[in-house]
Design goal:
With 220 residues, the protein is mainly alpha-helical. The protein has one domain (4-219): Methane Monooxygenase Hydroxylase, Chain G, domain 1, CATH 1.20.58.220. The chain contains 7 helices and no strands. The protein has helices at residues 4-35, 38-69, 73-104, 112-117, 120-140, 143-173, 178-210. Helix 1 (4-35) packs antiparallel against helix 2. The protein starts with a helix and ends in a 10-residue tail after the last helix.
């Protein structure tokens, strides 16, 4: 049992490394979208393979710890939290990759006015803040910081709710941008899901620190 602190420390280092890679992927996908940078898409595509490799490694590491050390109490909650967070991070990486591949297929750059009015910049800002806040909360083991993410997720939901109306108005004013505007609706859906995945990670962190499962709170 003396080896388990080292194994848990290694697990924590790996999840942090994956977390920072996923944040980098989302930052790059934003830049590619806003600057029509198709060269950056290739880099994002290559890094997607690294994200997938991280997920496989972390899954295996968690399974090995559970099988070899039979952790209990706080250690068990930590491993389960990492296992679920690993899945959520891989999904966020997928969304960043999907945004990048969308850029690859565009015929011309996005209209900056469309990006602003559709709320794309605000959504990227919010999603990245959520990811960074949750990572910082994990590093500091601060459940109150993790709870800040829940409020930020509401903004992403609000932008998504009004996106169809905004898109319709923009297409009437800018018919030549119709295809790109429809593509932005896809980006909005992906960023809203990034928020959902990050919210899940924040819930897992609170579960680890407080042994509470917030997602069932409204039923109790």
């Amino acid at each position: 049992m003396t080896h388990i602190p080292n194994e848990l420390g290694s697990l924590k280092s790996s999840i942090f490394e994956m977390w920072n890679l996923v944040i980098s992927q989302l930052v790059k996908s934003r830049y590619a979208l806003e600057h029509f940078d198709k060269d950056l898409v290739s880099e994002i595509t290559n890094n997607e393979k690294r994200v997938d490799a991280f997920e496989l490694k972390l899954n295996m590491d968690c399974e090995n710890i559970l099988a070899l050390y039979s952790p209990v109490a706080n250690d068990l909650r930590f491993v389960l939290s990492v296992l679920k967070t690993n899945y959520n991070l891989e999904r966020v990486g997928d969304y960043a990759y999907n945004i990048a591949t969308l850029v690859r297929d565009l015929e011309h750059p996005m209209d900056p006015e469309c990006l602003t009015e559709m709320g794309i910049k605000e959504m990227f800002d919010t999603a990245l803040k959520m990811l960074k806040t949750t990572l910082s909360a994990f590093e500091k083991e601060d459940s109150q910081m993790a709870r800040e993410v829940f409020r930020k997720d509401e903004l992403l939901d609000l932008i998504k709710m009004r996106s169809n109306r905004v898109a319709s108005d923009l297409i009437k004013r800018k018919p030549d941008e119709a295809i790109n505007i429809l593509n932005l609706l896809s980006v909005i859906r992906k960023l809203e899901r990034v928020g959902d995945q990050t919210k899940n990670m924040a819930e897992e962190l609170v579960f680890y620190l407080e042994a509470k499962v917030l997602r069932h709170g409204s039923k109790t």
